[in-house]
Amino acid sequence: MADFKEISPNAPLAEKALNWVDNRFPLSKMYKEHLSEYYAPKNFNFLYFFGVLSMLVLVIQIVTGIFLVMHYKPDAATAFASVEYIMRDVPWGWLIRYMHSTGASAFFIVVYMHMFRGLIYGSYRKPRELVWLFGCAIFLALMGEAFMGYLLPWGQMSYWGAQVIVNLFSAIPFIGPDLALLIRGDYVVGDATLNRFFSFHVIAVPLVLLGLVVAHIIALHEVGSNNPDGIEIKANKDANGKPLDGIPFHPYYTVHDIMGVMGFLLVFTAIIFFAPEFGGYFLEYNNFIPADPLKTPLHIAPVWYFTPYYSMLRAITSEMMYALIVCVIAAAYLGATRAAISSTLKSVVIGAAVVLVGLMFAIDAKFWGVVVMGGAVIILFFLPWLDNCVVKSIRYRPDWHLYLYVIFVIDFFVLGYLGMQPPSAIGERVSQVGSLFYFGFFLLMPWWSRLGETKPVPERVNFAAH
Does the predicted TM-score (pTM) go above 0.85? Predict the structure, then answer.
């Protein structure tokens, strides 16, 4: 039997209750480890708001989702009408629905900002590789959750967007048609597809998402938070073993984060009450029309947060395949001639390149578009092992590294914009160049991240109270 901690019989009732809980559940221990005695760097800036904002939006999505499920009917004949019923007849239903739809876009905004902060400050570097991997897995699960939720209103863009994306799986050699049939549950997107997506959106993916969030936080608190200087605060401790450049997360950063939360909620509520569709970016106008399998919209495009990847998918044409083949041959040549590897391994690299080039000729460009679209997300998982710069933070890297990151962000925005537009010859060319730059940024990172003279990194974090 575990040793129970005894307290004075004259102790206040609240203290007795807490002691009773602590003897059976490590409540105070968890509070100390993850809040009051978890030391975070004292030089956090506004970019560190987006971690807690991601948690806030996740809670908003779960709570509003529960209330929406009470009235939503996952049936192709009644789904659209049930959404209209929520909007028009359920008390405050319009508010709950707009909170959920705006929350979907807000989730991606804060997650993209959270990932951008990790990218520029090197938060994926040792010893935080696992924190980054869990974060990328969260992003992948979030994309699946958003895609399946997008079908549920059963509007025109919901139906035809799902039709286009699910049909992409049929491009996979050998298993593609059967896989697409399994996902749809029928030969076309219909009632079976709606029920499948509903069950995954409401039960399966949220459970995975919550598990990954818990793992992400536990892994973060095990190794400690990074900071804008990229300096490990655990390297400098006082006589009591507390980091000299750290402060307890509670109360300092809980109060600090309240400011970010209040600012976010001001913008969030303003959008909900004054512009919930946000010009058609958050809620597309075609989705206010019931799904009609016999009437295809003039232009089918996903929601804004998917458009950079959709733009890469459309960029892979038969003509673009020749450029990719040249890239594969060049990469194999450089790998075989410049790298310090054995002749046997060089032969393997060249052989693999020949096989890959053969496959690229043999398999339709549509399949390689799917590969590129998926690869644009999967490549993020390998970032901790692609970056070879001797310093973590962008603050101490060569100045031109910052310009490269800026170009990368602009490229991502341009790809996102082109993904919303109807196909055009100029847009196709720009998206092809943008896709090559996107992948080049990561695949060439082991080379370019070593170039240039880095700035001296201070032993202690830079911080000025304000």
Answer: yes
